Amino acid sequence: MANKGLLMCVCQGNCPSFQQMNIFDVGNAIRREKLVDYVGIHPQLCSTDGDKFLSTLLKGESTDELYVAACDPTMQVKMFRDALESAGFSKEHIHGVDIRNMTTEQAVGSIKNMLGADKK
Ligand code: SF4
Fold first, then answer.
1. Ligand 1 within 6 A of 44 CB?
2. Do 4 and 36 meet the contact criterion of CB atoms below 8 Å apart?
3. Relative to the CA of 73, which of 6, 9, 42, 120 has its CA 20 to 30 Å away?
4. pLDDT at residue 10 above 60?
5. How confident is the model at residue 118 (pLDDT cuts 50, 70, 90)?
6. Rounded to whole angstroms, what are the CA distances from 67 to 14, 31, 40, 59, 84?
7. Which residues, other chains included, contact 66 with Cβ-Cβ below 8 Å and sequence gap of 6+?
8. What 3-state DSSP class applies to 84?
9. Among the listed residues 101, 97, 91, 1, the one whose alpha carbon sits nearest the alpha carbon of residue 54
């Protein structure tokens, strides 16, 4: 079965766009329902160490599908391009959703929608 991971990124945790939600509650809601194989939070995925984190995580084919809840998905693909290339991870297997300016409940709903869990 495909190994699925969820990463959440919150612009270092002090950006106003993420102040309405509790990011830990968001992650807990997804992991409690076992909708993915792992859940993680990174403070700034688009930084140099975020690149390093992503390429290290995705090397070795242990993740088949990566879901990212953060900022605009189109921007995510552009910002993560070098890390994905370095890991040999196809951008077809990365799925993003924008959770900025959402409450905890709204963010959970958007992530579930991305995962297709709301259709089960
Ligand atoms: S990847 Fe997006 S959400 Fe994360 S720090 Fe960069 S701009 Fe902010």
1. yes
2. yes
3. 120
4. yes
5. low
6. 22, 13, 10, 16, 13
7. 4, 5, 6, 7, 58, 89, 93, 94, 95
8. helix
9. 91
pLDDT at 11: 95
- Measured in Å, residue 116 CA sits from the centre of ligand 1 at 23
Per-residue pLDDT of 37-93, as tens digits, reads: 999 999 999 999 999 999 999 998 899 999 999 999 999 999 999 999 999 999 999
Closest Cα to atom 8, ligand 1: which residue? 11
Residue whose CA is closest, atom 2 of ligand 1?
71
CATH number belonging to domain 4-114: 3.40.50
Please state, as a whole number, how many other Cβ atoms lie within 10 Å of the Cβ of residue 69. Answer: 30
- Close Cβ partners of 14 (under 8 Å, ≥ 6 residues apart): none
Q: Taking Cα atoms as reference points, which of 93, 97, 101, 100 lies closest to residue 118? A: 97
Q: Which two tokens stand for residue 44?
A: 């700034």
Total-model pTM: 0.95
